[in-house]
Amino acid sequence: MTYWFRRADVGSDQWFETGxxxxxxxxxxxxxxxxxxxxAASRSELGWALDQFEPLGAQLYEVRYGVLLDGPxxxxxxxxxxxxxxxxxxxxxxxxxxxxxxxxxxxxxxxLTGTVSELPWGPGRTGLFVDLGxxxxxxxxLGQLPLDPDDWPDVGTVADFEVATVRFSLEPxxxxxxxxxxxxxxxxxxxxxxxxxxx
Length: 199
Description:
Elements: E1 3-9, E2 12-18, E3 24-31, E4 37-42, H1 43-65, E5 77-78, H2 81-98, E6 111-118, E7 127-131, E8 138-141, E9 158-169, E10 176-183
Parallel strand pairs: 8-10
Antiparallel strand pairs: 1-2, 1-5, 2-3, 3-4, 6-7, 6-9, 7-8, 9-10
């Protein structure tokens, strides 16, 4: 069976969906008085991120959606499924739009060297993919690249990038995290992309 609980303390409001073992399979929580969610995580999503993208995927998932309660739920009051779902949606929206990216394994500004692996829409359109040697692909958006498509890097170009953000899409057709990047430096118009120097 499935159960729904709420545990509200001073400065903390935690909502849980559990099975018979009272282990949280989904958790929505808020800390403080700012209305921002501290957690909106699903155990099945966390498992999927670990299976598909190794420990890095699970770490990035927890940065985006928070950390589930470890162990059974105690000291909570039963709530309705409808009340839990409404709270879950509110917490999920909060984490998707305001989750901090200062921590975790790839905080904003982290410098990475990668190889341009694909320009799926051609130069000058949408962006390009970067192989970072990680289980998660990098993507550079059109707005981070030179205006002239002739000045875009070719497939195989090795360059330095920095992390702009990490996005998590959990829709079935686009189920993957993506490391959004920006080049650390772009060459002057008409000049080749410079290979990274030794670190």
